[in-house]
Design goal:
The complex is a heterodimer. Chain A is mainly alpha-helical. Chain A is about 75% helix and about 0% strand. Chain A has 2 domains: about 1-90, no CATH class; about 95-335, Orthogonal Bundle (MetI-like fold). Classes of the chains: A mainly alpha, B alpha/beta.
Amino acid sequence: MISYIVRRLLILPIILIGVTLLVFSMIMMLGPYERLSTYIKDPAELKNVDVDVLVTKLGLNDPWYEQYGRWISGVARGDMGWSESAGSTVTQAFLSRFPATAELGLLALLPVVVGGVILGVFASVHHNDFWDHVSRVLAIIGWSVPTFVFGLIMLMIFYGTLGWFPPSRLDSWALDIVNSAGFINYTNFFIIDGLLNANFAIVGNAIRHLVAPVITISILWWAFIMRITRSSMLEILRRDYIRTARAKGVKENVVVYKHAVRNALIPVVTVAGRMVLGLLGGLVITETIFNIKGLGQFMAQAAQQLDYPAVLGGTLYFGFLLILINLCVDVSYAIIDPRIRLE
Amino acid sequence: MSKEKLIDVNDLATYFHTEEGTVKAVDGVSFEIYPGETLGIVGESGCGKSVTSLSIMRLIESPPGKIENGEILFNGKDLTKLNQKQMRKIRGNDISMIFQEPMTSLNPVYTVGDQIMEAILIHKDVSKKEARQEAIDMLTKVGIPLPEQRVDEYPHQLSGGMRQRVMIAMSLSCDPQLLIADEPTTALDVTIQAQILELMNSLKRQFGMAIMMITHDLGVIAEVSDRVAVMYAGKVVEYADVKDLYGDPKHPYTWGLMYSIPHIEKDLERLEAIPGNVPNPLNFPEGCKFNTRCQFATDKCRVDEPELEEVEEGHYSACWHVDKLEEQKAKQGRG
Ligand SMILES: Nc1ncnc2c1ncn2[C@@H]1O[C@H](COP(=O)(O)OP(=O)(O)OP(=O)(O)O)[C@@H](O)[C@H]1O
Ligand code: SF4
Ligand SMILES: [Mg+2]
């Protein structure tokens, strides 16, 4: 197991370099003058200088590998230039928006994977009965309604009509508390910080604001994870080794939960990995609809305002994130399946 | 054979109720097995051998499958009347089973030791540590080298022959009275086949269990069985001591199989032993189910179904015209 993870980690740098090269080549598609903008914090800086001198001074006409070297050492230090739309460095902009997105993403992901698997196993054991058909219908609806339509409907019903689940991250009274001196922002995850500060009003308010976006972003995946688990289980339950287990006198629920589920999880992990990618896309839409100041919303705004440094920095960050997710998926496979671990 | 019967199957019928219709996979099968004896069950693919054995284990997938009729007396107790909880005490303990495909019969995500220990822990009151030691002992008994190391390996790290040995170790770990072996060697290559059969014979001497050996290989049957039941289309058509059956078959189907196989080591399936096809279990012919392929068939055969009858002492055949077969044998100078 350890040796498998080490082997995985050893190829990580190669992939990382590949990703940086890819992003760098996107940067290089811009001309030197456009790239100059990533160094300019205020247009006033350009008033008294010759732009060509600046370009030469910053080495924007140097051979690409020299520029790559400079850029990558900047990236390594967390320096990805100045973001016009955020009014701060790209790194600062990302760090300040990361908690909102992570909170939303994790709350969308974990219950879906755990709950979807449990429901899927249940559905496979009770296949073809009433709940099985209900889940099938829900899955089809979940798949066919686009996130932005679903999000707007949620907003309309649960905020517009019922007033239950407001948009943004917190009500303004709660924001005042969070920004006050007495409240310590340990993580900037409002639920966790609320708990750590023993301020349950904040926890409650944060959750209330998260319900609608979490449902919006994950509704489709509930159904999907569940259906995949179900069909995987149905296939596994027909395998010879399940019959072997029964022939040993193993109890039926042990047959299902010990012998079948672990094998059935293998395709589920694949789907969960893809789900994370899907969530990243869904974040942009969901954060925009529910006015959550997270990375998705930031990226969308940056793109609209042609804020190249933010977009490219974001691409790089998301690239790294994907590599990390892939690693998690691969490690999960190895934990579940000894054939992968020992190959 | 004056001993008590270990298992006594009477008129067993197991059907599958599918969308296309009722599949009469097993339709009136009777046989018995005495303690310590090996009964061979032979027949072409699809004749109901596996369904018979799974019926005994009460592992028929239900729905669509259902035991429609008959009784399965095991030590006098009718297994068809037990509930699943009572059956679980018998499975793996009194009756255990090994299957055709060693490659897929073991769970790929657990070590072979875990899988053997599981059976031991279910049926015996021992600690994990003792169970592990028993598992290692069993691996030693089935001739697996380095058992202390193998016990922690996963099925994919073992060859097919080794996996079948693991299956055998697992099935014998609780000292069963009956071992059902459903084509245990079919998926293995010839030299490994011989080794596994030899192993089973020697374990039988050591453990004293009865074996129900299912196969479509007449050579295997000849090697290991005391008595043989020949199945055709969900029924036992001939039932006799192994010597009598091979020396003097009394059913046209058995005779056809042997006639076409001068060297009985060959595999039934590969030879077009008898012209024609096995009838579709969704739509069996009226009367004797063999009548579509039988050279002796008469009008009676197409209307009435013959039952197993004792044609010689201890030799049963389900055929209206055993006499015609005898004539033919005499004519050909075979017999
Ligand atoms: N779950 C099921 N649903 C429907 N029909 C089934 C099912 N299981 C078995 N059958 C049918 O029952 C018949 C007997 O099958 P069985 O597996 O007992 O044959 P077999 O003698 O073991 O053959 P083989 O030598 O190929 O293993 C076949 O026609 C098969 O199609
Ligand atoms: S009963 Fe008739 S059809 Fe059946 S085996 Fe005998 S002779 Fe052939
Ligand atoms: Mg079979």
